[in-house]
Amino acid sequence: MRWWMHWNEWRRKLKIIRVLLILYGNSPFIALVKNVKMKQSRIVYRCTIACSFLLIIAALYRGLSINNLIVAENTGDIGKHFSNTVLIDGILSATLLFGTAVWLLFLSGDLKKFSRKAWLQAVFIGLTFTVFGASLWYRYPTSIHLPAFLFVGMLLLVPLVWFGKNFRQ
């Protein structure tokens, strides 16, 4: 038997397989690619949820530390001239941390669906926390909460950049 006869036999078998795949659904390769894409969306979703919960914890911690600011004002550790400004800044930072966490919780569902607009917003938030944490940690190396902001930003930013090609809409 000549080699082209074997080739024709294989072509006939491939045609049968293609017809069966058309009748019974997608190819196994496409199912594998969809499964990998689902895993990628799950990774992005879980990292976004983790960042949200870490930011909620940071907001609660910041909100609970407002009492320390009031005590510092009353004992004279913070001058009366600056105490109101420091108190307002503390309340505002706790509120903004909580608002950003809630914003990420709302974005997480769209990120799971690979929405491009949600991706841009989450990348902006991740870059903001990363640059804020890294630059201020460089300036104030003894501060312990600035590496935490750097970690939160990187936790959000790395999966978004890694799987960024999937966000096309």
Provide an overview of this structure:
The structure is a single chain. By secondary structure, this protein is an all-alpha fold. It has a domain at about 40-65 and about 95-165. Helices cover about 85% and strands about 0% of the residues. Helix 2 runs antiparallel to helix 4, helix 4 (about 80-110) runs antiparallel to helix 5 (about 115-140) and helix 5 (about 115-140) runs antiparallel to helix 6 (about 145-160). The longest helix has about 35 residues, at about 30-65. It is elongated, with a radius of gyration of 26 Å. About 20% of the residues are buried.
What secondary-structure arrangement, pairings included, does this model have?
Blueprint: H1 3-24, H2 28-64, H3 66-75, H4 80-112, H5 116-139, H6 145-162
Helix/strand/pairing category: mainly alpha
Percentage of residues in strands: under 5%
For the secondary structure, the number of strands is 0
**Element-by-element helix/strand order:** HHHHHH
Question: Count of helical segments?
Answer: 6
Described by the principal axes of the CA atoms, the overall outline is elongated
Arithmetic mean pLDDT: 81
Q: What fraction, in percent, of the residue positions are helical? A: over 70%
Summarize the main sheet: none
Distance between the termini: 53 Å
Low-confidence stretches: 29-33
Instruction: Return Rg in Å.
Output: 26 Å
